[in-house]
Sequence to fold (1104 residues):
Amino acid sequence: MSVDRNSTNWCGWGWQASRYDFKGHRDYFLSWIGARLGVDALHTSTPPVSPESIELPATRLTDADLQALSVAAGGADAMTTAPRARLLRALGRSLPDLLRLRRGDLPYAPDAVVLPASEAAVAAIMQLCREHDWAVVPLGGGSSVVGGIEPIDPRGRPVISLDMTRMCAMVSFCPQDRCATFQAGIYGPDLEATLAQKGWELGHVPQSFEFSTLGGWVATRSSGQQSNQYGDIADMVVSCRVVTPEGIVATWNGPVSAAGPDLDQFIAGSEGTLGVITEVTVHIHPKPKTHKINAVLFPDFALGSAALSDIVGAGLRMSYMRLSDEVETETYLKMSGPKLIQDMGLSALRVLGYGENKCVALVGTEGDPETVDREVGEAMAIAKRHRGLSLGGGPAKNWHRDRYMHPYMRDDLLDAGIATETHETAVPWSRVAAVREDVRASIHSAVKAQGLKAHVFAHLSHSYPTGTCIYFVLMYPVDAKDSIGQWKPIKAAICDAVVRNGGTISHHHGVGLDHKAWLVHEKGVAGMKLMAAACKAMDPTGICNPGKLLDT
Amino acid sequence: MSVDRNSTNWCGWGWQASRYDFKGHRDYFLSWIGARLGVDALHTSTPPVSPESIELPATRLTDADLQALSVAAGGADAMTTAPRARLLRALGRSLPDLLRLRRGDLPYAPDAVVLPASEAAVAAIMQLCREHDWAVVPLGGGSSVVGGIEPIDPRGRPVISLDMTRMCAMVSFCPQDRCATFQAGIYGPDLEATLAQKGWELGHVPQSFEFSTLGGWVATRSSGQQSNQYGDIADMVVSCRVVTPEGIVATWNGPVSAAGPDLDQFIAGSEGTLGVITEVTVHIHPKPKTHKINAVLFPDFALGSAALSDIVGAGLRMSYMRLSDEVETETYLKMSGPKLIQDMGLSALRVLGYGENKCVALVGTEGDPETVDREVGEAMAIAKRHRGLSLGGGPAKNWHRDRYMHPYMRDDLLDAGIATETHETAVPWSRVAAVREDVRASIHSAVKAQGLKAHVFAHLSHSYPTGTCIYFVLMYPVDAKDSIGQWKPIKAAICDAVVRNGGTISHHHGVGLDHKAWLVHEKGVAGMKLMAAACKAMDPTGICNPGKLLDT
Fold:
């Protein structure tokens, strides 16, 4: 596997050794954002505690329990209670997770970690857990930002973290059917490297790509940055296998069926509550020969949004398409330091009508050169009708190079006392403006209620003919005394505003513990009942990732 | 609504007044098919009984029951027990349905028919049925070919047929979101006419288009003839509303969500077992400006199949794409009479390698003229690489003109003592050859076991990058003494062969009563359990279309 968890940052994003470099303009950006928030970020230092200082709660399993678990998991090296192993699986990577970890404030940790290497071992673990009434929390990379892998059980039973990352093999490869089957614990880079050797590709690249797994993508209905071309992970799933306490659900392996409900689409998004996804067959495509991404400047967000809608509406499958709002546009300019801003000739642009409300979009695709040229050309023509001004390929190159780096920035900013939270939703096109206004206003109001200032920006990505994803980022000064108590009302204000405007509580992050209270707005009371009944049929004693997604 | 059920053929397809005309070559075709089957079809006449001679079982509802039902449904004109109304909803339009109707052999009929005009009326009917423990069988056009609307209850309770066709209004139209919401009982032509007035289109055209409804399409996961471009109905659904005994399931109205399982994809294919679909929001598109369809001749089925796979694999969204196998190709030539065969210069083609195994395909699309020309050109270039020979647009025009007419032929052939059965499945591309061989051999073997001969042909339609639908047609001489007893082992032989080769038991017809026994091969024991639990949560007393899809 590509990720040795021991080399990852125990209290932050990604590799222990990696940091966001701000392109050398850290001080410039910290000064700017500090001024926006009314704090001296540049001279604030709030480092995390030392991991060695954290005392985890003792495991509640007996030696005999652990021995049985080890046998079920496949041997001594497939089970551990080592403190660092438990610590690394005690929380995901949401803002409150980072806040807790950095303070060393960990009320829970898995009672044991198992690392099965086969579906048979997963089934044996599941059987043992059912017999002993232990909860099972499956995880891949553990990058959940919604409280999806917390090793806690509302009923207080012991919790086993089931780490799938040893199950990382390609099981079959069938170019004739444009399909490949993988064990679910394979990380993104390993999956793509395996396919690339044969000239093929999946094309699913969420921002967590390097630190998340196929099974995790399916369990949470993940979307990749190129979803406009290749679809979301739920579109890519051809079939899958799930080990549940009541046996294995193996879905039909074929293109389309009218034989009853689509079980793949019930498993996608089940977040471990049905059981453990062990194997997934995905739709693959030959590796594209080239890609081309243009940056486009719009006078304002409404024009950019209309352009994106028209591009997807025209059936153009742009694999890269995102639109930063005016605040995100300004923020990225500041992150690039003072030089670029001069280079861009902003005053000249202002004269042309691209002033304070200007928004940058990226529009591009990949494939064979001729198709790419034609489709990007058509998309640019549509953009131009909405006053889109081409900035060429330069800014897009920077974005493409840095596209997995932004999560690291959260840690750098936390070191300077600034919290970065994200929240994404999807709405029909007709609600984009309203949901953006309401969420922004709700955030500012919730942070102001704490006597503080917030910095809020947003972008559109993952656009569809019928609507789009809108992704919010907010920054605010951390209250060191009660960072979780401070975060909760802000998060609630965002979620309330999202559902008030008809948005989904998550377009691609999932539900977990953090969004659960808002799910009923979207599924309805009857819909929640349907989902709960299906989960209960597979998991009668509620041991599968209890408390996530649904109340159990 | 476009269909007055009283003007439809009580024991056959479509309009009472319409027949398949065989383009004037009825005698020629009957002679040919008779010779293939070893019978004198031309001089056989087996007309149906008179509908007036059929005695339906008496309704089991009391006058007070009927009065209560009438009130719930919305008044005297929303409830009926008239014999013709009950007869017209007693069976669908499968081959065994036609065989039963033609013999006047009707062991059951709905105890009453209700025709609600609002969701509130549907909910009131559902409430009353739950209180009285009556079964509810929803239907739209009633064109099921899998025993989907049979008004029988395995537990012997009275059965109400709930006819949705009075609920046929457009509820909302939002071009900005490329969506429209309709009441579920709207027929295909009415839906498209409503959208066409505004310059828009849904583009879902199953062969049953004229006699089926939006709600029926969703309940059965229908596919239209243009699914390669616009998707199957399950892809078009943005949200829907279902009246269940436990309340209304209203799914989220937006493009894509990661908030738990996708309930739309559980409702699609639920076949009335969760409740009654009352409203559906669908993704629509501007009406295309033009279409272009070419016929292409391939030397054999394998080459044609490879061409279709490469066309979808290249990302070309051909709205029309089907490939007849060699027997279907020959059969359609015979249906066109003797003249066309000469015209086509078959002997010249034979010299070029297009002999007995030649297969005709249709390849085309719709949209703006420039895109259509380019995409059809690219598809034809791919076809050519597989030795596809363009026959131009002529043959395709005939197919396009007749595309809703073929179901009428079943009735003409039944009049001459010949049964026509259809069965469709989908498989990954790698299994197309095997499933075709096995299903064909199984049919010939099952019919031969009865001392008779069969005529079997097939075509590919609804192709996907990962696989394709394969649609079988078989003709055999009807055993007038026991036509149902004769049909059952033939149907079973087909279904066995399909699942033996990894095919779905239905790509777009559904499950109903007829395919139910084979569903477990596809969903597995655990999957069946999951579905049953979800249905039971919405319908604890099992009154919703009982016995279809699942055992209840």
In short: Chain B is about 35% helix and 20% strand.
